[in-house]
Amino acid sequence: MTLVRAVVWVFLLVNLTIIHLLFVTAGPPASGPLGQAGRLLGLYLAFALVVQVLLVARVPLLDRAFGMDRLTGWHRWTGLTVFWLALLHPAFVIAGFARHDRVPAPATLLTLAAQIPVLLGMIAVTLVVVVVALSVRAARRRLSYETWHAVHLLLYIVLTLGIVHQVYEGTAFTVNLVTMAYWWGLWAFAIGALLTGRLILPLIRNRRHRLRVAAVVPESGDVVSVHVTGRDLDRLRARAGQFFLWRFPGHNRWWQVNPFSLSAAPNGRSLRLTAKAIGPTSAGLRDLPVGARVFAEGPYGAFTLARRTRPATLMIAGGIGVTPVRALLEDPDLGDDVIIIYRVRSGADAVLLGEMRNLARGRGARLHLITGRTGGANQPFHPDNLRRLIPDIEDRDVYVCGPAALTRAVLATLRTLKVPSRQVHAELFRLAGGS
Prior knowledge:
Layout: H1 2-26, H2 32-56, H3 60-66, H4 68-101, H5 105-113, H6 116-133, H7 137-140, H8 145-152, H9 154-169, H10 177-209, E1 212-218, E2 223-229, E3 243-247, E4 258-261, E5 270-276, H11 280-283, E6 295-300, E7 313-318, H12 322-328, E8 338-343, H13 353-363, E9 366-370, H14 383-389, E10 397-401, H15 404-416, E11 424-427
Parallel strand pairs: 7-8, 7-10, 8-9, 10-11
Antiparallel strand pairs: 1-2, 2-5, 3-4, 3-6
Helix pairs in contact: 1-2, 2-4, 2-10, 3-4, 4-5, 4-6, 6-9
C-alpha cells in the first residue's frame, strides 16, 4: 500500500505541474493581471473537481491504502477548496473585465451572464454554495442523513455544468492537440473511475450475489440486526470491521443509501448489519420483510486487522460503534491478547453485549463495560485513567469506533500517551455523520 500512496502523491504533483505549464502556455488574457489570476484559479478549480470525482468514485485501491474514513475527510476538505475556488475564480475574472473595460463590476457580471457557458458556470457556483451551506456542522445537525445525501446529489449537476463551462471557456485547455488530449484524458479517467466504482461494479456484484433479507432481529427498542444472504458471498472478499452502503428497494427511495458496518465477521454465507434508529431508513429496518431485495455497495473501510502491527490489541467502542468491533472479535487472526472497552450511557444501551461477552470469553479477552455520563470522576479516557486501565497501551494496536466526540477524545489521549500513529486505527464514519 506504500506504493499506492506514493503513486497518489506523484499524480497530484505531476498534474499540478502540468496545470502551471498550461497556464503559462496559454499566454496572458485580455482582461489583464486580475483576469490572469482568475484563469489560474479556474485551472485549480477544474483540477480540484477532478480530485473530488476520484474521491467519491470509491476506488478500491485507494480505500485499501487510506481507508474510507480518511478519504471522506479529504473529500470534505476538497469540497471546501472547490467552494472557495468557485467563488474566487469568477470574482477575479469579473474584476479583470470590469477594470479592462472600465465598467462597474455589476454591469460586467450581467454582460457575462448573458453568455450561456458563463451562465452555466454561475449556476454551478450557486449550487456549490448551497451544498456547502447545508454541510456545515450547524446545518448538518438539523438534517437527516438521507436529506444530506440527497442534497449532495446536486454535485453531479455541478460537475456536468462545470464540464460544459470548460468546453466553451477553458482556453488554456485548447492551446493545441496535446493540451486538449491531456485535459480531456484526465476527465475521462476521473469519470471512468466514477462510473466504474459507483455504477458498473455495484450492478455487476449485486446481479451476481442477489442479496435478500434472511431475518430481522430486534436487539433493543431502537436497534435492529438485519441478516442478509445471497449467492457466492465469499467472492465479495469482505472482512470483519468493514462496512457496506446499503439500499433497500421498496423500503426507501433509490437515491437513499446508508453506511452500516458488518456486525458479524463475514462467513461466505451471510452478512449481518446492526443499526440504531437515527434516520428514516435505519428506523424502518425492523419492518423489512424477509425475502426483500437488498442492494449493497462495498465492502469499504480499512478498519481491519490487515493494518495491525502488534500482536496485542486494544479495542474501544462507543454506543452503536460496537458493531465493527464485535465483528473483529470473530476474526481468527485477532489473537488472544485482546482488551475491549465498551463505553455506553447505561447498561440498557449496550447492544450486543451478550455476544461480546461470549466472544471475549471464548478467546480469553478482557471486556470492560463502562457506563454513566462523562464528567467529574467518570472520565475513562483521560490519559491517566486509560494508562491505569491499560498499562501497556503503547505496545498495542488500538482500534477505536464510536461517536465523533468519543473518538476524538480517545485519539487525543493516545497522542498524549505517545502511542505510535501507525498503531492507531479509527473509524469516525464521517460518511454517515455518525457511527
